[in-house]
Specification:
about 425 residues; alpha/beta; nine-stranded parallel sheet; seven-stranded mixed sheet; about 25% strand; binds guanine; binds zinc ion
Length: about 425
C-alpha cells in the first residue's frame, strides 16, 4: 500500500457548462494505491494511514493519458518531408514497416515505443503493428513486461503495397486469430482487428476482417477513413459498387461501438449519420492531419451530430508523442473553424473521454476507487517560459490551458503504471 500526495484532478463526466460538477479537484489530495489499483481518493489528512507517502506537491495528479490511434512501426518515419498521404505511405512508411519482418528490430522499437509513451504520460496506447505477426508479438511482449494496458493488432493488407508487406486473406485470418487467442485479455492486453484501410485490402480480406469481428465481438476494430481526398477517390475506384467510403466498412460488418475510425475528416451527411447510428468512434489526429496536409477534423459537426469521438497522436504521420502537444494542435484546428476547445473538455478527452471511446472507463481514465492505478504527475512550471506564464494564472482551467498550449514531455514528472513508478 502507498499514498501519492498532490493536487488530485479527474473527471466524473463530460464537461458541458462551467461549474457543472463534471470534475473533482482536491488541493491537498491523496491517492491510496494497493496491488496496482486505486483504493481511495480524498484529502490527504483523511487518507494518511501510515502507509508510505510519495509527495508530489505542488504537482497535479491525473489519470494517465490514452492515445487511441498510432503506429508503433513508424517511430523512424516521424518528420518525413514533403508528402501527402499516398506518397507519404509509399515513400517513407511502407519501407520503414518492411523492417519489422526482423523480430530483433521489432523488439528494439517496441521497447523504445513504450519508453516514449511513458515519458509523455501515456499509459494506454492503441497501436497498429506492421503486417508481420512478429511485430504484434513484439508489441504485446514489451507491453506485458511493463504491465501496460495496451491495445493493438497486426495490420491486414493484401494489395497495393510492396511484396514484403502483404499477407493474404487466409494468412491474415490465421495470424490474427492466433494473436487474439494468445493476447486478447491476457494480463492487460486487448486486441484490435486491423484492416489498414480499404485501399490495401481486397474485398476478400475485408470479409475476413468482418468474420474476425463476428467471432470476437469484444475485440476492437481499427482502420483509416476519409483522411485525404486522393485516398477517397482511389478507394471508390477500387470499390465502384459503393456510394461512399464508410459504406464499404459497413458492408463488411466492421462498424460498431468498438470501431475506431482514424481521421474521419471528409465525410458526407450520410456517413456522419451512419457513424452515429453504429456508435463508431471518429478519431481526431490533429498533428498528423496538419503535418500530412490532410484537412481539418470537424469537431463541432461530430459533437452536434452525436458522433462518438477520441483523440490521438497518429505517430508517425503525427509529429509528437505528447498528448499535450496533440491538444495544442487540436485547439488550433478548432480555432481555424471558429470553434473553441476549452481546457476542461481537452483534458476530459485525454482521460475519461478516450476511456469511454474504448469502453474502458471502469478500468482506466479516472481516479475512481477500483480503477487501475495508471497515473500521470504534471508540472505546469516545467520550463522557464511556463513558470513565467504561470505567475499570472489563478484558476485550474487556466493552469490546464498552459499545460495544453506550452506543455510536452518536460511537464511529465512521473508516470505510474498499475501503481508502479516508471520514470
Ligand atoms: N492510411 C493508411 N495507412 C496509414 C498510416 O499508416 N498513417 C496514416 N496517417 N494514414 C494511413
Ligand atoms: Zn494511422
Amino acid at each position: 500500500m502507498k499514498i501519492l500526495r498532490g493536487r488530485v484532478f479527474d473527471f466524473l463526466d463530460e464537461p458541458q457548462t462551467p461549474g457543472d460538477g463534471s470534475y473533482r479537484y482536491i488541493e491537498d489530495g491523496a491517492i491510496l494505491l494497493d496491488q496496482g489499483r486505486i483504493v481511495a481518493v480524498g484529502d490527504f489528512a483523511a487518507l494518511d494511514n501510515g502507509a508510505e507517502v510519495i509527495d508530489h506537491r505542488p504537482h497535479l495528479l491525473m489519470p494517465g493519458f490514452i492515445d487511441t490511434h498510432n503506429h508503433f512501426p513508424q517511430m523512424q518515419v516521424i518528420g518525413s518531408y514533403g508528402a501527402q498521404l499516398l506518397d507519404w505511405l509509399n515513400t517513407y512508411t511502407f519501407p520503414a514497416e518492411m523492417k519489422f519482418v526482423d523480430p530483433e528490430h521489432a523488439a528494439r522499437i517496441a521497447t523504445a515505443y513504450f519508453d516514449e509513451m511513458l515519458r509523455n504520460g501515456t499509459t494506454t496506447p492503441v497501436a497498429y503493428c506492421s503486417v508481420h505477426k512478429t511485430s504484434a508479438e513484439a508489441y504485446f511482449t514489451a507491453a506485458a513486461a511493463r504491465n501496460i494496458r495496451a491495445i493493438g493488432g497486426k495490420v491486414l493488407m493484401d494489395r497495393n503495397a510492396p511484396e514484403g508487406l502483404l499477407d493474404t486473406p487466409e494468412t491474415g485470418y490465421d495470424d490474427s486469430k492466433a494473436l487474439i487467442e494468445k493476447w486478447h485479455g491476457t494480463g492487460r492486453a486487448l486486441y484490435a482487428v486491423t484492416p489498414r484501410f480499404a485501399i490495401t485490402s481486397t474485398p476478400a480480406q475485408l470479409e475476413v476482417a468482418g468474420a474476425l469481428m463476428a467471432e470476437n465481438p469484444d475485440c476492437y476494430m481499427q482502420t483509416h477513413l476519409s483522411e485525404n481526398t486522393d485516398e477517397i477517390a482511389y478507394t471508390l475506384e477500387l470499390y465502384p459498387d459503393f456510394r461512399d467510403y464508410l459504406g464499404i466498412y459497413d458492408h463488411y460488418g466492421l462498424l460498431g461501438p468498438r470501431a475506431l475510425m482514424g481521421h474521419s475528416i471528409h465525410l458526407s451527411e450520410r456517413e456522419v449519420a451512419l457513424m452515429r447510428e453504429t456508435r463508431s468512434v471518429a478519431v481526431f489526429c490533429p498533428t498528423s492531419n496538419l503535418f500530412i496536409g490532410s484537412g481539418l477534423f470537424d469537431e463541432r459537426r461530430m459533437q452536434e451530430n452525436g458522433v462518438r469521438m477520441a483523440l490521438a497522436t497518429d505517430i508517425g504521420g503525427g509529429t509528437s508523442y505528447s498528448m499535450l502537444r496533440t491538444l495544442d494542435e487540436a485547439y488550433k484546428v478548432c480555432q481555424l473553424q471558429n470553434r473553441n476547445l476549452p481546457p476542461l473538455r481537452a483534458f476530459y478527452m485525454l482521460t475519461l473521454g478516450n476511456a469511454r471511446a474504448l469502453g474502458l472507463e471502469a478500468e482506466i481514465g479516472t481516479l475512481a476507487a477500483g480503477s487501475e492505478a495508471d497515473i500521470v504527475v504534471l508540472d505546469a512550471r516545467a520550463t522557464p517560459a511556463m513558470a513565467l506564464r504561470m505567475e499570472t494564472v489563478e484558476t485550474l482551467p487556466e493552469e490546464l490551458f498552459v499545460l495544453q498550449t506550452l506543455g510536452d514531455d518536460r511537464s511529465v514528472v512521473q508516470t505510474y503504471v498499475a501503481g508502479r513508478a516508471m520514470l
